[in-house]
């Protein structure tokens, strides 16, 4: 086996948990029953790697076969790496009739016309998603299987999800996708995240916010002084109001997992105590980024607990409503002393 093949196999064995390795090899189907039964999964990762290298050389497996194994692991574990979303534009009359075989042929054909040195594999997942693995090369080098690009597309929908997209591949991929899906163009959908299911549900409007109709105040305890009862009743009412405002903004159920939200500000600087900045004709430009393991849940928790003020600003509550986590905020009304509303683009 070539060094690249050995390196890819070593990476895969390190990446796949030992308890999942047997099932992944079974789905791969490149080893015989006897070879799979001879594998001792209680051994160290190094020993397992050496055993697999020996078996792959015995079966004369190539880099292309190992790319299949990596693709199986990627499809079974989609929440690795950052996914970016795109939306196909202006569908043609026959866009809804494109089926898998036709899409595979057209996509590979168009991409091969644009670039010779590449490797493309296409598989359909159990949830009807079409997964595409692209290893890109150059005029003087073979496809780099160590840094593949993954594309996920649901046929008959305008949405595309991409991971590890390079600047070189982006225009070529856009052209191949639009032609294979019978569309006229493609644009960025301004949504990204590590959880593919979450961003898919947001972008394809499969996520439904659940808004409760009634909020209960905490029960009053008996045998307490009247003053304490009044204080706790007032505090309970304030807490209930905060929870109401937070859940009114984000709903009452499980929230999609997003890791960040980015706001590009291009507005007038407003501060009555800073006339130098306020009177400048140029707009104030900056980037504001919120980050968390589960950003929407964190925002709802902050509003419910009083850490953040209520009601929640539309700049934050519009994330699940619009299915986006990248916004450009500008002013409607120009001018140094403008107090006009802000808009999100």
TrEMBL record:
GO terms for biological process: CENP-A containing chromatin assembly; chromosome segregation. Keywords: Centromere, Chromosome, Nucleus. GO terms for cellular component: chromosome, centromeric region; nucleoplasm. Pfam families: CENP-N (PF05238). It is found in: Chromosome, Centromere; Nucleus. Belongs to the CENP-N/CHL4 family. This is Centromere protein N.
């Amino acid at each position: 086996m070539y060094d690249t093949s050995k390196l890819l196999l070593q990476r895969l064995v390190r990446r796949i948990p030992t308890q999942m390795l047997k099932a992944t090899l079974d789905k791969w189907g490149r080893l015989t029953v006897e070879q799979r039964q001879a594998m001792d999964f209680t051994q160290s990762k190094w020993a397992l790697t050496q055993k697999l290298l020996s078996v792959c050389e015995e079966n004369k497996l190539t880099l292309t076969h190992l790319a299949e194994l990596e693709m199986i692991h990627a499809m079974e574990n989609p929440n690795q790496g950052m996914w970016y979303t795109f939306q196909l534009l202006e569908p043609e009359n026959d866009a809804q009739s494109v089926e898998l075989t036709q899409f595979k042929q057209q996509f590979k054909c168009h991409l091969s016309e644009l670039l010779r040195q590449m490797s493309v594999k296409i598989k359909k997942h159990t949830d009807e998603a079409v997964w595409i693995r692209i290893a890109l090369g150059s005029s003087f080098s073979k496809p780099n299987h160590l840094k593949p690009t993954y594309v996920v597309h649901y046929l008959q929908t305008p949405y595309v999800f991409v991971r590890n997209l390079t600047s070189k591949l982006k225009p070529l991929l856009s052209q191949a996708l639009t032609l294979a899906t019978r569309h006229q163009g493609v644009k960025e959908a301004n949504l990204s995240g590590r959880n593919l299911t979450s961003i898919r549900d947001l972008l394809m409007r499969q996520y439904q916010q659940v808004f409760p109709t009634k909020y209960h105040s905490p029960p009053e305890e008996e045998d307490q002084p009247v003053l304490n009862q009044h204080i706790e009743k007032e505090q309970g009412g304030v807490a209930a109001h905060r929870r109401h405002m937070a859940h009114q903004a984000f709903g009452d159920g499980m929230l999609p997992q997003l890791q960040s939200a980015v706001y590009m500000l291009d507005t007038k600087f407003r501060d009555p105590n800073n006339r130098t900045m306020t009177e400048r004709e140029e707009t104030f430009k900056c980037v504001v980024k919120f980050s968390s393991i589960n950003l929407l849940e964190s925002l709802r928790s902050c509003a419910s607990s009083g850490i953040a003020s209520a009601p929640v600003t539309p700049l934050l509550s519009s994330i699940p409503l619009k299915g986006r986590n990248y916004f450009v905020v500008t002013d409607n009304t120009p001018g140094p002393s403008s107090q006009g509303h802000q808009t999100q683009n």
